[in-house]
Design brief:
The protein is mainly alpha-helical. The protein contains 4 helices and no strands. Helix 1 packs antiparallel against helix 4 and helix 2 crosses helix 4.
């Protein structure tokens, strides 16, 4: 293996790990924002709804439930970021990330809705909840998508520049 191939291979591994870290940080950051929106009554969907199918008891609303929920969003977000990396990393537009976030929003509110018993069907939620949730998902998609696409395009640019030297 030549020095250039080894360097390229190492960068690919580090790039995937960067995408996974971006996903984890994005999940934590935007779940914290979702808790803040819930606290200020912008949305009626509490972020700890994620634990609802798997747990029993009121501990979900305590500080330990909040911490576990935030970490779980980070872990789930790793998979979401990996999907973005595998499928959409070549797109340079921020709108692709926003669209990705809104597709995730529709998946959660329409397809995964039956998993969460306390979550009302889409059209029975109030406008504030729907708009706030859509904005959080859009910003989450923008964060993950733009971060991954930016790093991927920077890598391509420097690789092409090295090859042309």
């Amino acid at each position: 293996m030549s020095h250039m191939e080894e360097k390229h291979s190492n960068h690919r591994v580090s790039f995937i790990s960067m995408a996974l870290v971006t996903g984890f940080i994005g999940g934590i950051l935007w779940s914290l924002l979702a808790y803040l929106c819930y606290y200020f009554n912008f949305t009626k969907i509490e972020p700890n709804i994620l634990l609802e199918p798997f747990t029993v008891g009121n501990w979900r609303g305590s500080w330990i439930g909040i911490i576990i929920t935030i970490i779980m969003y980070g872990i789930i977000s790793i998979g979401v970021a990996l999907v973005y990396y595998l499928v959409l990393k070549n797109f340079k537009s921020m709108w692709v990330g926003i669209a990705y976030g809104l597709i995730l929003y529709l998946v959660v509110f329409f397809i995964l809705n039956p998993i969460f018993p306390s979550m009302k069907p889409f059209f029975k939620n109030d406008h504030n909840t729907l708009i706030t949730s859509a904005c959080i998902y859009a910003l989450y998609g923008l964060f993950v998508g733009y971060s991954i696409s930016y790093e991927h395009n920077e890598f391509k640019y420097f690789r092409e520049r090295k090859l042309n030297e």
